[in-house]
Amino acid sequence: MLDDLDVASRLLPMLRVVCDDLPIPISIADPDLDDTPLIYVNGAFEALTLYRAEEVIGKNCRFLQGRLTDGTVTDEIAHACQRRAGDSCCIINYRKDGSLFFNMLAIQPLRLDLNRTLLMGCQFAFRPTQTGGTLARTCALIDRAQRQMRLSSRISADDINLHDTFRIDTIGMRFEAAFTRVKNALIRDNSSLMAQGSSLRRREALGRGGFAGRDQSHIERLLG
Ligand SMILES: Cc1cc2nc3c(=O)[nH]c(=O)nc-3n(C[C@H](O)[C@H](O)[C@H](O)COP(=O)(O)O)c2cc1C
């Protein structure tokens, strides 16, 4: 079995070679450390989330979650992580600047040996206008990265078929659920602001960057 303390430092050079310049966001977390902290993120993760690697290494990736993130989805991920198993979902996340995005997140186990597993996350910022082609290209890149990891280290990735994990019909359903959640929250926020009576107060609240205003403009940008 690999020396626990040494796992990250042994793997990091290889992860840098394979993942640093990949155009898809990659994050690796160590579930054997307290609260499953990130031990590596690549440049595409930084570009998507606007967090720099040094700000997030050592933290659990839940810092991307916020007001509209669905607790049932995070429960599902937590359960998969406990079992060191793979999972995929559509989760509402927030960048460092507070802007919202729909994250098609795939988590996969990277088995180092029988007793030691790391978890790799691939984040895919999903826009409803994106076609299956974009997703298929992303899956192909992830597949290639995993093959390279297997070749250049002792990692044996499970034989997970990302094209199955990310099946277009299930993506549609998962996205729909997340999107409905945002839509309902916007309706709720707007009607509670309206219920306060004065449209002036409503405008003021939105002008202050109240949740409804901020999320609404992010959604409009996403759909635009
Ligand atoms: C490798 C890896 C990457 C993850 N990436 C994300 C992510 O991009 N967005 C997110 O909301 N959660 C992400 N998570 C999930 C959270 O870190 C956490 O496991 C989840 O919120 C469930 O745990 P909790 O209920 O204790 O928060 C990731 C987890 C792992 C292991």
Q: Can you tell me about this structure?
A:
The chain is α+β, with helices and mostly antiparallel strands and 224 residues long. The protein folds into 2 domains: 4-168, Beta-Lactamase, CATH 3.30.450.20; 175-223. The chain is 49% helix and 19% strand. The protein contains 9 helices and 6 strands. The protein has helices at residues 7-19, 43-49, 53-56, 71-82, 132-151, 162-165, 168-195, 199-207, 211-223; strands spanning 26-29, 38-41, 87-94, 100-113, 116-126, 156-157. Strands 1, 2, 3, 4, 5 and 6 form a 6-stranded antiparallel beta sheet that branches. A hairpin with a 2-residue loop joins strand 4 (100-113) and strand 5 (116-126). Helix 7 (168-195) runs antiparallel to helix 9. It is globular, with a radius of gyration of 19 Å. The chain starts with 6 loop residues before the first helix and ends with a helix. The site of flavin mononucleotide has 21 residues, from strand 1, helix 4, strand 3, strand 4 and strand 5. This is PAS domain-containing protein. Keywords: Chromophore, Flavoprotein, FMN. Residues 34-120 form the PAS domain. Pfam families: PAS_9 (PF13426).
Number of domains: 2
Bound molecule types: flavin mononucleotide
Helix and strand element order: HEEHHHEEEHEHHHH
3D shape: globular
Low-confidence segments, given as residue ranges, are: 204-212
Relevant CATH superfamily of the largest domain: PAS domain
Give the strand tally. 6
